[in-house]
Write a structure and sequence with these properties.
alpha/beta; 4 helices
Length: 166
């Protein structure tokens, strides 16, 4: 009976350890997209649109738009942000895309991801831009949509954020 209990405990410990390692060390670790960093879109009157979303949907608006704060994975101490921001209809920021929207993807390992994409023949449309709150670069997808890759520094972003969400 003791041997059976010991084997059961060892199996349970193995399964718990295996499960925990899958959560803390996911299969797709390394350079990759980890989430949506922001939704950017063109508007005829960004200020009026921001006011409408604030009044009617309760979105808290700051200098860039709104930043939705959340926590990364199972670690409630690690903040993350998703930006929502209308741009002037005449902005050149989305060029060379002719689309109205641009998605900003949060990434891990930006340099490694760019090297991997370069090896596949995918080149950025600009150079990596460094800011205190992270590094950015832009690419075009196969359908001509400009996308932004952002390797965030959420600690610095939280310091500069004008919006606090509860």
């Amino acid at each position: 009976m003791k041997k059976l209990t010991l084997i059961g405990l060892l199996c349970a410990a193995f399964l718990l350890g295996y499960g925990f390692s899958r959560v803390t060390n996911p299969i797709n670790s390394g350079p990759r997209v980890t989430g949506i960093g922001g939704i950017f879109f063109k508007a005829k009157d960004p200020a009026a649109l921001k006011a409408w979303y604030s009044k009617n949907l309760g979105i808290r608006i700051g200098g860039f738009g709104s930043d939705f704060e959340w926590h990364q994975g199972m670690d409630s101490t690690k903040k993350g942000f998703t930006i929502w921001a209308p741009f002037k209809e005449t902005t050149k920021y989305f060029q060379p895309s002719e689309k109205q929207f641009m998605i900003n993807y949060r990434v891990e390992g930006l340099d490694q991801l760019l090297a991997k994409m370069k090896a596949a023949g995918i080149l950025p449309v600009d150079s990596v831009q460094k800011a205190s709150y992270g590094n950015f670069v832009h690419l075009m997808d196969p359908e001509g949509n400009k996308i932004e890759l952002w390797e965030p520094n959420d600690v610095e972003f939280a310091k500069m954020s004008t919006i606090t969400t509860k």
